[in-house]
Task: structure prediction
Amino acid sequence: MTISCLGKALLAGLVMVGGTAAAADPDIIAHRGGALLWPENSLYAFKQAQQMGVDYLEMDLQLTEDNELLVTHDADINPQFCTPAPGVGLVPKPVRALTLARSQQFDCGRASRSIYPDAEKRDDIRMPSLASVLEAFAGDRQRRFFIETKMPKPGAPGAPIDTTLYAAKLDQLIRKHGLEDRVILQSFDWRTLEAMRLLNPAVRTCPLAVPRHSSDYLGTLERLGATCIVLSAAETTAQQVRELQSAGVLVFSGVVDHQDDWAQALQLGYDAIFTNDPVGLDTFLRTHSAR
Result:
């Protein structure tokens, strides 16, 4: 893939942005473990991302019927890429209506979501529990975790969820592995962030979709006791990113998968870049002397 004129112009401006050097070494966040490359939200994807050296493993959580934390994005088992394991008489249904054990009887690697058509296909890919993911990677001090709590829609099976219980289940695992300094909790449902703040203020929190609620980003974060924010290129400027960073806030990009967008993210000076293609981003950063 070649870089367009826009990308070249952005790269040419990386040395100085508004009189201040832009961030030259952003971290890489593997969105769903690298969903363009490997089966999303799987232990296999996380291990592949670990081997190629990403900084953050990003994952989604759903709460099962027996109140266990399952790593998966959708509130309902998605038949597009999850099918019952051979010999198992199950039909896809809401995660909240299945126990952890039953949820893990679906094979989610033989196909992929339509927006990730070229992701590697593999047999016997099960949705992992968060406990198993943290157990697998807790000893790797180079890896951090960006974990999103997902909620069922109002009126869906198992809704509403006790947000304090949700946060407490996560906090138990964080404390078990001593991960307070390596986990960032993100959510569109800010109640889980507030609950975590009360349970364990050492865990950094990151409210999603702040621009939908307020143009006062820093004021919103201070009100929530949060020190991280995700902002797309359309929602911020290089100066604003620097101001937030000066206030102790980690500023992450939106999910970007193309070279022009990576170049723009470098210009804006994010602390970390979200991508479904961590291998491509890593190559891009190395090529442009940013890693």
